[in-house]
Amino acid sequence: MPNYLRPKQSGATIFFTVALADRSSQLLIDDIQGLREAVIKTRQERPFKIDAWVVLPDHMHCIWTLPAGDSDYATRWRLIKSRFSRRHPVGPRSKSHMARNERGIWQRRYWEHHIRDREDYDTHIRYCWVNPVKHGYVENPEDWPFSTINAFGP
């Protein structure tokens, strides 16, 4: 079993990619309100700043900045994923899903990248905003309704 070593950088700004187990699913946009509620509840308990967020049917990209003195993004993701999952029927599960009491909705891991500097930050912000265009959902990033681009501007 891999031993994941995550940086413990307090107050870090981090880019994430989080995906559903079923990459043909549209669950994230079908229940965007459930995802929003899971994020809101988690932020009430464990605050973080949302720098950018885009939700596509089967995955999402976001950039968070953690508060000073806090490096625990893993717990935040665990809470968001579990709160969202509880709203939905159990998906196909392996023995390891059952042993961990997972519902089989999410890919177990997610990808994270600690932002290094302003250029890296700007690159990942653009990546979030243009992702719906890349996947062919819209022609202009501003037209995708499940993105913070309209809240924060290009």
UniProtKB/TrEMBL annotation:
Q: What species was this sequence derived from?
A: Cognatishimia activa
Provide the Transposase IS200-like domain boundaries.
9-131
Can you name this protein? Transposase
- Cross-referenced InterPro entries, in alphabetical order? RAYT_transposase, Transposase_17, Transposase_17_sf
One Gene Ontology BP term is: DNA transposition
Q: Which Gene Ontology molecular function entries are recorded, alphabetically?
A: sequence-specific DNA binding; transposase activity
- Where on the tree of life does the source sit, at the highest rank? Bacteria
